[in-house]
Amino acid sequence: MKTMHGTIFLLIILTVLSACTVKSSQTNTANKPLYRDPVYDGAADPLVIWNNEEEKWFMYYTNRRANIENSVGVDWVHGTRIGIAQSDDGGATWQYRDTCNINYRPDTAYTHWAPEVIEHNGLYHMYLTYVPGIFTDWRHPRHIIHLSSKNGIDWDFESQLNLASEKVIDACVVQMPDGNWRMWYNNEAEGKTMYYADSPDLYNWTDKGWADGKFRGEGAKVFKWQNTWWMLIDEWKGLAVYQSDDLEIWNRQPGNILQEPGTGEDDMVIGGHPDVVVQGKRAFVFYFTHPGRRPEIPDSPAYEKRRSSIQLTELFYEEGNIACYRNKPVNIDL
Fold it and tell me: Is this model's pTM higher than 0.85 or not?
């Protein structure tokens, strides 16, 4: 009898442990908001990538000085380095890590925006929007520079890209099926229209002019999912969705995603400037919000209007289109 009781007890324990393990794997629910920068509270323009050296997920982001006092004009959007957050649990929670050590400081004051980071043959490449100063308005140059890194933290300058104008921002880079590379970017000098450039090696770029459709917007994100190519563009009223079979001709999906406000904390406004991480049949979109810019609260304090939060939701493929349900909890394990 003692042996039987002991066996039954052991089976009960193993069953409970198994149930706990299954429950744990199914409840890796992402925080909402997903992340707020602890220094300036101005995290925006997220880019998420696996860091091979540290075996962690890194999030690079533009950091705006939302909490500074006596701000003049838009100087609070300037004057910061790129922030880094890291996740040890597959993307559900994020902790502040540091800022990127970018060894390119030709100007006494400088601004880093909108990092695009890819890994190729063991080397990380960043295409960064560089602003040569801290300015109170938008009437100043902006360039895209190329940086490289072996660890994803310390970055060496490679070049300033020769693109269509002296006011270009928000690079997005993908490898095309033929092995060459394509970059989409926002040419602000042409009404914030989407342009593109091609490269055989990530170092030498040839500008190609307007992208198909001459669409306007910023923060483009191009990715392959469900056996086709997609582009998300921030139109300042949610994200426009485009689909392409060849990265040349783009067809617009009706309506925008993340245009209707959500109900979660810091998510009751439009979503902007996304990144997408594809994991097999699942795809996750990281985006940012300005929680204080709610039309029903027009007189919120300046800090509330400036601060920003990173959010996360899942994308779904429905009848040939992309959909998302931002109020639905996201179980994620990248």
Answer: yes
Q: 148: how many CB neighbours lie within 10 A of its CB?
A: 16
Residues in the chain: 334
pLDDT range class, residue 9, cuts 50, 70, 90 = very low
In one letter, which amino acid is 81? R
DSSP 3-state of 217:
coil
What amino acid occupies position 271?
Answer: G
Selection from 26, 43, 28, 40 nearest residue 311 by Cα: 43
- Can you give the chain as a three-state secondary structure string? CHHHHHHHHHHHHHHHHHHHHHHHHHCCECCCCCECCCCCCEEEEEEEEEECCCCEEEEEEEECCCCCCCCCCCHHHCCCCCEEEEECCCCCCCEEEEECEEECCCCCCCEEEEEEEEEECCEEEEEEEEECCCCCCCCCCEEEEEEEECCCCEEEEEEECCCCCCEEEEEEEEECCCCCEEEEEEEHHHCCEEEEEEECCCCCCEEEEECCCCCECEEEEEEEECCEEEEEEECCCCEEEEEECCCCCCEEEEEEECCCCCCCCCCCCCCEEEEEEEECCEEEEEEEECCCCCCCCCCCCHHHHHCEEEEEEEEEEECCEEEECCCCCCECCC
Please state, as a whole number, how many other Cβ atoms lie within 10 Å of the Cβ of residue 25.
10
Q: How many angstroms separate the CA atoms of 261 and 251, rounded?
A: 25
CA dihedral 49, 50, 52, 58 (to 10 degrees): 70
84: left (phi over 0), alpha (psi -120 to 50) or beta: beta
pLDDT tens for 251-281 read: 999 999 999 999 999 999 999 999 999 999 9
CA gap 169, 209 in Å, rounded: 14
Phi, psi of 294, rounded to the nearest 5 degrees: -100, 125
Which is nearest to 289 in space by CA: 30, 31, 28, 34? 34
pLDDT at 2: 40
CATH for 36-324 is: 2.115.10.20
- Encoded tokens for 158: 């490679």
